[in-house]
């Protein structure tokens, strides 16, 4: 028995266990961790279960070419696969190979974002209610990404200053954005219900929320503190995929996505709008209202102002604001030959 325990303690973790371990040490998001693991699995299976340490640039390029030519994946998907493999070699296998710096990423085509007009936004919100309407209101009214909204905690909402603190956003950055005054009454009413649910959980000996990093060990009582609770908690308890603890997690993202998708169809919008379209609309409408692009950049959390500048292409007073020579002239339509 002692021999088995000793051998288990000294046994080296397999490759994927090591990937999970390094991803958590580097504080990667859980969805990023899962994505990397899946791509590394596909990379190894594609090369007949050969260990990555025995492969190199040729095998990597062969895999990426297969994705582009045979599977016809998009440039962003191909780059995601490349990022996973680079993570494997650089951080898991600790191989500082010269060819890693020569790998060329696929060039992503520039796409103009889909933006809803103000009247389309109004039509959309007619078909939203309850929590999905409140979350959608933050996506459009504050420019949040969907997961940023769902991961909000109670103390991230500053009603006095009318702002929201987004913690650990994309790129691991914190930022402030506007809290729409029109949403404050609904949010406060929503929090009354959430607080009653939290008190019920505490009475049953539950009510602990997952805390970031090592805060749970450093400050054990904060896991049950009201300020750390999710603004949009899940209606059910679930097991945490990382530590296995059963908690009330935040609301599942697909619930909001389905509600918005249903509202788009019900409003009979001709655009393929999603939750992220509301964030695009937030940025575009701010620019139309005359706010400077640097302010919009900070509210969105963009690293480069060039990313924010894409919204100038869909503004009413941008390129689409040009008056056509057809409208300047005497031609008003009708059949050919009409006066």
Our count of helices gives 15
What gross morphology would you assign?
Answer: globular
**CATH architecture level-2 label of the largest domain:** Orthogonal Bundle
Query: What oligomeric state is this?
Result: single chain
| Biggest sheet statistics | 3 strands, antiparallel
Rg on CA atoms, Å: 25 Å
At the third CATH level, what is the topology name of the largest domain?
hpI Integrase, Chain A
Highlighted features:
339 residues, mainly alpha, DNA polymerase, domain 1, hpI Integrase, Chain A, 2 domains, three-stranded antiparallel beta sheet, two-stranded antiparallel ribbon, 15 helices, 5 strands, globular, disordered N terminus
Q: What does this 3D model show about the protein?
A:
The protein is mainly α. The protein folds into 2 domains: 12-102, Orthogonal Bundle (DNA polymerase, domain 1); 110-324, hpI Integrase, Chain A. Helices cover 48% and strands 4% of the residues. The strands form 2 sheets. The chain has a 3-stranded antiparallel beta sheet. A two-stranded antiparallel sheet has the order 4-5. Strand 4 and strand 5 form a beta hairpin. The termini are far apart.
Short recap of the structure:
The protein is mainly alpha-helical. Helices cover about 50% and strands about 5% of the residues.
Topology:
Blueprint: H1 2-10, H2 15-25, H3 30-46, H4 57-69, H5 75-92, H6 118-126, H7 130-142, H8 146-150, E1 157-158, E2 163-166, E3 175-178, H9 184-203, H10 215-218, E4 238-239, E5 246-247, H11 253-266, H12 275-288, H13 293-300, H14 305-308, H15 325-328
Antiparallel strand pairs: 1-2, 2-3, 4-5
Helix pairs in contact: 2-3, 3-5, 4-5, 7-11, 7-12
């Amino acid at each position: 028995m002692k021999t088995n325990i000793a051998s288990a303690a000294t046994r080296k973790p397999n490759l994927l266990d090591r990937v999970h371990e390094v991803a958590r040490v580097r504080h990667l998001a859980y969805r990023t961790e899962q994505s990397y693991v899946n791509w590394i699995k596909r990379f190894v299976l594609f090369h007949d279960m050969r260990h990555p340490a025995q492969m190199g640039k040729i095998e990597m390029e062969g895999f990426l070419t297969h994705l582009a030519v045979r599977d016809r994946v998009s440039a962003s998907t191909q780059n995601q696969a490349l990022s996973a493999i680079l993570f494997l070699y650089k951080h898991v296998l600790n191989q500082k190979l010269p060819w890693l710096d020569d790998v060329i990423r696929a060039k992503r085509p520039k796409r103009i974002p889909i933006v809803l007009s103000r009247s389309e936004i109004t039509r959309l919100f007619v078909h939203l209610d309850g929590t999905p309407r409140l979350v959608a209101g933050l996506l459009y009214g504050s420019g949040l990404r969907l997961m940023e909204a769902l991961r909000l905690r109670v103390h991230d909402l500053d009603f006095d200053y009318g702002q929201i603190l987004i913690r650990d956003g994309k790129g691991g950055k914190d930022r402030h954005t506007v809290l729409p005054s029109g949403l404050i009454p609904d949010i406060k009413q929503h929090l009354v219900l959430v607080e009653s649910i939290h008190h019920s959980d505490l009475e049953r000996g539950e009510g602990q929320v997952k805390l970031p990093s090592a805060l749970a060990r450093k400050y054990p009582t904060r896991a049950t503190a009201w300020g750390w609770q999710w603004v949009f908690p899940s209606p059910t308890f679930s097991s945490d995929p990382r530590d296995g603890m059963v908690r009330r997690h935040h609301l599942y993202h697909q619930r909001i996505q389905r509600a918005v998708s249903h509202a788009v169809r019900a409003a009979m919008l001709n655009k393929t709008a999603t939750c992220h379209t509301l964030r695009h609309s937030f940025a575009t409408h701010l620019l139309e209202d005359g706010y400077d692009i640097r302010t919009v950049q900070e509210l969105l959390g963009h690293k480069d102002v060039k990313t924010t500048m894409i919204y100038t292409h869909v503004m009413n007073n941008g390129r689409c604001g040009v008056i056509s020579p057809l409208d300047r002239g005497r031609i008003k339509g009708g059949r050919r030959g009409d006066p």
